[in-house]
Amino acid sequence: MPLIVMCGYPCCGKTRRAEELKDYFEKNTERKVYVVGDGALDVDKNSVYADSQKEKNVRAALKAEVERKVNKDDVVILDSLNYIKGYRYELFCLIKHTQTPHCLVYCLTSGEVSSAWNSERDTAEQYTQDIFDALVLRFEAPDSRNRWDSPLFTILKDDTLPYEAISDALFKRKAPPPNQSTQSQPLSSTNFLYELDKITQEVLMVIFNAQKTSVPGDLLTVPGATEKISFLTCLHFHILIFNESQSPKIVIFPPSLLEYRIKQSVCRRTHCTQNNLYLTDLNSVLNIELTRSINMAELRKLRRQFISYTKMHPTENTGQISNMFVQYLNKSLR
């Protein structure tokens, strides 16, 4: 149910505008229209706004009534002061949870005009001057730049309501997406967490043990996964290039095992393949040094990150966990 939040000073014409909107939607649509306001609670407004706890209870009651009536079909109009931006944000979170649009109608008048209208009311319906002045001072004007105050329709006392624009904002606009934290977690199999923990630990051990015998460019096969893990790994060694006519000789000490970084002194251009290193300047010496090894601590850290993410996005097919973890590692270890 789309929600219309009325907002403005006391006695600024909110109730009149709410009734006009109710009449318009009832005549031009087949939707039901509900008006939720202070009047339905049958409370003394002066005593309520003089006591912060009573005021908080009234706001909670109004919000609860809106929450009971809100859905995706009909229209709810909240006819109250709604002068606290934090409260308007709570209403915004409510409509995000129900995935329905909303808009804010701001009845803009000066304090003097609202005070004059207040004095014209029956004595039983008037705000006392002290309460009226306090509410005007506490009023937090809406700002269309805030998502909880948008779309915002500002109405002056002599303006005609933009019925079509309000209708389009409610029925032709996409509802804001709900917060991920408010959504129910997807259902997963009863042994999902056990399988997740077991499979990722097995992958870690395969990778850790395979590093001992791997050479640069090897693809590590992980049981249960079609994806493979690739490493460019080598140990500190020296490459000596001797310029002998057109056939340079290359001597490498010792075989490569761990990830490397190339430091060149004279070389202008290099190109590496799995087993060879080619240089355009052949009179040079290269040092390839160990920068880091992929140890178990780093692998465990990546595993914890993957498990945390997968708990929030479980898969129904536990057979895909190995592939997902291998893909995650390949991207993280680049």
From TrEMBL:
Keyword Nucleotide-binding: yes
Similarity comment: family membership: Belongs to the KTI12 family.
Species this protein is from: Xyrichtys novacula
Any GO BP: regulation of transcription by RNA polymerase II
Database matches in Gene3D superfamilies: P-loop containing nucleotide triphosphate hydrolases
Keywords, alphabetical: ATP-binding, Nucleotide-binding
Protein name from the UniProt record: Protein KTI12 homolog
UniProt entry tagged with the keyword Nucleotide-binding: yes
GO molecular function, one term: ATP binding
